[in-house]
Write a structure and sequence with these properties.
The structure is a homodimer of 229-residue chains. Chain A has a five-stranded parallel sheet with strand order 3-2-1-4-5, sandwiched between helices. With 229 residues, chain A is an alpha/beta fold. Chain A has one domain: HUPs (Rossmann fold, 3-Layer(aba) Sandwich). Chain A is globular and about 55 Å long. The N and C termini of chain A lie far apart (54 Å). In chain A, helix 1 packs across helix 6 and helix 6 crosses helix 7. At the A-B interface, strand 3, helix 3, helix 4 and helix 5 of A face strand 3, helix 3, helix 4 and helix 5 of B.
Amino acid sequence: MTARPRRTVVLLSGGLDSATTLAIARGEGYACHALSIDYGQRHVAELEAASRIAMALGAAEHRVVDVDLGQFGGSALTDRRIAVPMRGVQPGIPATYVPARNTVMLSLGLAWAEVLQANDIFVGVNAVDYSGYPDCRPEYIAAFEAMANLATKAAVEGTPLRIHAPLIALSKADIIRRGAALGVDYGLTVSCYQADEKGAACGLCDACRLRRAGFAAAGLADPTRYLTA
Amino acid sequence: MTARPRRTVVLLSGGLDSATTLAIARGEGYACHALSIDYGQRHVAELEAASRIAMALGAAEHRVVDVDLGQFGGSALTDRRIAVPMRGVQPGIPATYVPARNTVMLSLGLAWAEVLQANDIFVGVNAVDYSGYPDCRPEYIAAFEAMANLATKAAVEGTPLRIHAPLIALSKADIIRRGAALGVDYGLTVSCYQADEKGAACGLCDACRLRRAGFAAAGLADPTRYLTA
């Protein structure tokens, strides 16, 4: 008789980083319950990509929770009146930062983890390429984990919950190399902030720039369909 | 010229505790942006009550965010297959505990606070009557505040965010006395876990028992419409 694999919740956006994170969690033997959040993004291509990635990488289950963060405004990703930046990474917090997005997503992951009796949550945050996002830093992840361990039945019953952020210190090239070695088909993933309905990428926004540069630095072919050269 | 009042987000469920919390925040001079979360509760009477309370207590604004925590199951408040407890408060975590509910609600409050440039969030958690809920304890609130101060632009830009839980150490009777002194009309509030469509209370569930006992201990008339004596 083999032991039942440990369950984990994996936050899955449909992008390159979260797909790699799912592959890492699977590689560590977890039964992966993939969670996507529809927070009022500009496009649905990313969520459709998440569904395909969950299937391709052998997730046990994939769910989408709707949360209308767009009604609060404040981000280029949820408010059409704010322009998506096109000038390369600038100092400070980018206009594409969604207020408290990772906190909301991790909180929903925590709710599901508690019901699943899972003691682990995987999230693909990365502090290197996105240093302007406060909720992508290691000290933030550590603080969320500490809070989560006071918030839940698991804490009361003495089973610590762990937030895994395996990409947090990796470069985009390192992430791509790691995922490629684990068999991730990056052609399924969508990184572009303004992908079209079929998931084709603009090639111009910061997310596209970082992705292209990452494949080049990794020395791997970029399977992305870009609308511009 | 008078200074613009400081803004705060107040989590408002429609129950007795959060109505009192809103009255306290108003009494401290805040412009109150009231936030209700529809997390798949068994009834909508509570949310309708929240709307009336926000108006009556002079909130600047009231919004409702839908989050389908019910799809995860695990609580008597969102899953009709789990019975609402009727036998008085028992040791341990009650069946009415909603997984990570306060974490999800505070996270959404944090997202809105960041967009509003509010540095304060008020929440009506109470550690005395609901000692079985892990996310109603002072150490949990402190840990959420620490996490929030690493999660947001406010943290990066050096304006600390504060989570106010003014009821956390009060008895139900103390809460009722405090709110009554601030002019809260408790006839507008709904505490019952299974109120009917018009907001009438069962009189039997734990929330009803605590509410009834609170009014009795405070020596004040209970304006609640109970369906049972």
